[in-house]
Structures are given as C-alpha cells and as structure tokens.
UniProtKB/TrEMBL annotation:
Transmembrane segments: none annotated. The keyword Flavoprotein applies. This is Flavodoxin 1. The keyword Metal-binding does not apply. It comes from the Bacteria. Its cofactor is FMN. Keywords: Electron transport, Flavoprotein, FMN, Transport. It comes from Geofilum rubicundum JCM 15548.
Length: 66
C-alpha cells in the first residue's frame, strides 16, 4: 500500500523501527524500519500497548508537520 500512495505523490507516515522484533522477513520492511506499526500479539503481546503509544506519538507529530 505504501508504494501505491507514494507513486501517486502521497507521503507515508508512521514508520517504526525494526529493533526489538524477532522475525524472518516482512514485506513492510524498508531498511531498518517497518512501514506502519508492526504488532506481534502471539509472541510479544506484552509490548503491544507501549508500541501503539510510541507509534501514535510519531504519527501525531508527523501529521503536525507542514
């Protein structure tokens, strides 16, 4: 979806670091970041609330930029 948005001149916001995730690969990965918020409810459920909170802070800041 990110590529679709960018190809049409849009800007993708809400990237998150891949640090702290255990995974083999993701189509949402760009370098050392995920496009959007990645949640692992099965293996890292205890981190979910904090990850959502941190991601929302990033998104709110990015939408506030002009």
């Amino acid at each position: 979806m990110a590529e679709f948005v960018e190809e049409r001149g849009g800007k993708v916001v809400g990237l998150t670091s891949t640090k702290g995730y255990s995974y083999e690969g993701s189509r949402a990965e760009r370098g050392d970041q995920f496009v959007g918020l990645a949640l692992d409810i099965e293996n890292q459920a205890a981190l979910t609330n904090e990850r959502i909170k941190n991601w929302m802070e990033v998104v709110v800041k990015e939408f506030g930029k002009k």
